[in-house]
Specification:
This protein is an alpha/beta fold. The protein contains 4 helices and 4 strands. Strands 3-2-1-4 form a 4-stranded parallel sheet, sandwiched between helices. It starts with a strand and ends in an 11-residue tail after the last helix.
Length: 136
């Protein structure tokens, strides 16, 4: 059974994608910062899952090195990972201020969640991602 790791899967696009994969029989490793929302999403995904698909929910923040290590350990323990979706994100201050007035700490947080953390997670799970030369 194929396995997908989807960050930010407790709501929105991440949850919708996870649901579609669960219906197709994929095993899922999902995460989200809001433990309650993630538990609710995981319960819904388990009800939607077919072919005995497993849903493993790991609450946490992708900017936390230990959390990324936990995610990587789970998929590494499974032996392979067919799909990684770095969906976790943040928009920063809202409403979005003019670039000239955006606090630099807010920019750091946006870059940490949307750029640094995804790259770090890719580096950790790359050994179990099969080499692909296009869609299979």
């Amino acid at each position: 059974m194929p396995t997908a790791l989807i960050t930010g899967a407790s709501r929105g696009f991440g949850q919708a994608l996870a649901r579609d994969l669960a219906i197709r029989g994929w095993d899922l490793v999902i995460d989200g910062r809001d433990e309650g929302a993630l538990a609710s999403a995981a319960a819904q995904l388990r009800r939607a899952a077919t072919d005995g698909a497993e849903v493993i929910a790991v609450p946490g923040d992708v900017t936390d090195d230990r959390h990324r290590e936990d995610l990587a350990s789970i998929v590494t323990g499974r032996g392979r990972l067919e799909l990684l979706v770095n969906n976790a994100g943040t928009l920063g201050p809202s409403p979005l201020p003019a670039l000239a007035t955006v606090p630099t700490q807010a920019l750091r947080e946006v870059f940490e969640v949307t750029t640094i953390a995804p790259l770090a997670l890719i580096q950790r799970v790359l050994p179990v991602l099969p080499a692909r030369r296009g869609p299979s």
